[in-house]
Amino acid sequence: MKRASCPSCGAPVVFRAASSLYVVCDFCRSTLLRSGEDLQNIGRMAALLEDDSPIRIGSEGHFRQRHFTVVGRIQLQYASGLWNEWHILLDDGRSAWLAEAAGELIVSAQVAVKDPLPAFSTLAPEMPVTLDGRRFVVTDLATARCIAGEGELPFRVAAGYDVNTADLRGNDRFVTIDYSETPPLVFVGQSVAFADLQLSGLRDVREPAVTAGQVATRALNCPHCAAPLKIHSPATESIGCESCGSIIGVEDENLRLLSRAAQALREVPWLPLGSAGRLRDSDWRVIGFMRRSSSSAGPTCSWSEYLLYDGQQGLAWLIEYQGHWNFARGLSNPPSVSRGEAKFTHAGRQYRLFNHGEAEVTHVVGEFYWRVAVGECCVVDDFICPPLMLSREVNERESTWSQAEYLEPDEVCAAFGITTPLPVRRDVYANQPNPLVETHRQICRLFWKLALAATVVQLAFIFLLASEPVLRQRVVLAAENDEATLTSQEFVLKSRARALLVRHQTSVVNNWLSVNTTLVEKNTGEAHLGQQEISHYKGVEDGESWSEGSPADELVFRAVPPGTYHLVIEYELGSDNSESVVDTIEVIRNPTGWSNYVLLLIFLAVFPLLSRWRRNSFEARRWRESDVGDDTSGDGDED
Questions:
Q1: Rounded CA gap, 389 and 369, in Å?
Q2: Pairing of strands 173-178, 161-170
């Protein structure tokens, strides 16, 4: 750490970082160049714009478990807004940058790149760029102007300093190419959450009435109608006046009229501006309201978007369409998806393209972090994996991704304490969870449990109550003897038979056979009669084989007591064929029955099939709302 005195005003200045060549005096705003042990005044620095950022020179934090101190800042402005680049010094002596833009925080450091860098003029949103073997995609192109700087800086900064920048993303890395020098400078980093930085020594909230987690506000007046306006977020770049519909740009405590809103009807937000609520474990305040529309799917559809702000979490969106709600935030690690790609996997989930079209801003009220304008358009692709939806918005200068999660309307009411009747929920929304998925899953689980139980019982009958053949006899019925009565061999049942199966396996073909089978107990004379008609015909017609009937048949006698038995069989043979018929008679004690088991499985299968049909009907209703085709294959869950 080097201490010195400002040669202009004598105030003390400190160089904490060895890499710092310049320091801006806090008192006289002089830019001081370090040259050996001397300081040279090279001019005055312009004043910084007020932005209500909680970070300041001297704030401390942690990144990847390494402590850092904020030692400087440059402030840049471009067509859509304003952002800060905080110069931070790590305890190991290295320096990096903490970017603060549109509610997102990004820590990055300068790196050397071997690959040649593309010219700024050749870049376009979504264009792939390879740097040192890693693939990135262009997400934002901007021509920015440095407004001012403060604290220690590694390079000279002056007001009016223009720079072309290209932002790229790939996997979890964020790349900025700074074209202010030749060759361009490359900075690589990643997006971080405010809470993860564990920041301390932040700037005090200026209004004593505001408590931790709330937002300091600035009161202003509309330059067109003098209606009172308030600025809540430090990222605010424009405000839509509720009274006259004007859209106003915010610049250094002053307001500049950008345009008049072109809405035909006054839109009254269901969720009033200024509403505060707790959602997803954060305290949010509604600071902006926008209506957007699209006609890509035929009839024009419109939806509402509420911009939310939290002092630590930054910005988020609450989106409502036909009574369906989504909570959305910018995606710091977007997927790499080509135009026209219908499916991709991200974070272990498979997403499918649901909508593609152009969205247009039709109404604006409240604060926004870019210079919003009525009539502003962008191309939107929505990819769904209920309850999540990833949306890509592309215009001529940037490509952004957001992740939305479906919310039940009651959750929105509870979060913001709204008692006004909710917008009526209609149809099925793109990423609305299918309420029948879990029901179908439970029914399928129950089906498999019952099917397993039935199978165990069936196997018990097979192995524990094994069937036993008690008779097998072969008889021949001559064609010239079309009627015959035969008595089988005797067989013994040592115990009561649950069932006694008599099977006739014949050689009859192109003929019929009538069989009367009588089961007779030798000692008591007790008889059981069964009648059967066996017919079997086959042939070839027009070159195709055909068959009708079966040469085999069986009958079952139930609850047969123990004893000695024989069969008395009366045959009557048809005259359609002159061939003799061979009948192989089998008697089986306690045969294994499969019909009841099969019928039970069929009955049980009705329920999962019905629930599956109901589940898929919900999905069919969902995909009828899509403008890229139907997908009624269900939600992909296994039964």
A1: 22
A2: antiparallel
Buried-state track 410-445, b at ≥16 Cβ within 10 A, e below 16: eebbebbeeeeeeeebeebbbbbebebbeebbebbe
Q: What is the pLDDT of residues 152-192, one digit of tens each?
A: 888 777 666 688 999 999 878 899 999 988 889 999 999 89
Terminal CA-to-CA distance of the chain, rounded, Å? Answer: 66
State the pLDDT confidence band at 98, using cuts at 50, 70 and 90. very high
Strands 282-294 and 276-279: antiparallel
The pLDDT of residue 109 is above 60? yes
3-state SS class at 447? helix
Share of the chain above pLDDT 90, in %: 45
Please name the amino acid found at residue 529.
L
Q: Give per-residue burial for 42-70: e unless 16+ CB within 10 Å, then b.
A: eeebbebeebbbbbebebbbebeeeebbb
Rounded distance, CA 307 to CA 327, Å?
A: 10
**How many CB atoms lie under 10 A from the CB of residue 74?**
22
Going by the DSSP 8-state scheme, the letter that residue 449 receives in this structure is H
**At residue 209, does pLDDT exceed 50?**
no
Rounded Cα distance between 114 and 108, Å, is 18
- Residue 120 tokens read as 């700024």
What pTM was computed for the model?
0.68
Task: Give the per-residue SS3 of 245-275.
Answer: CEEEEEECCEEEEEEECCCCCCCCCCCCCCC
- Cα–Cα distance between 566 and 576 in angstroms, integer? 31
- Residue length of the chain: 639
* 511 class by beta-carbon count within 10 Å (0-12 exposed, 13-18 middle, 19+ buried): buried
- Confidence band, pLDDT 50/70/90 cuts, at residue 548: very high
CA distances from 619 to 90, 345, 564 (A): 52, 20, 65
Distance CA 479, CA 579 (A): 6
In this prediction, residue 27 carries a pLDDT of 67
Distance between CA atoms of residues 147 and 45, nearest Å:
9
Can you tell me the distance from the alpha carbon of 293 to that of 601, in angstroms, rounded to the nearest whole number?
51
- Does residue 342 have a pLDDT over 80? yes
Which residues are CB-neighbours of 627 under 8 A, at least 6 positions away?
A: 296, 297, 298, 355, 356, 357
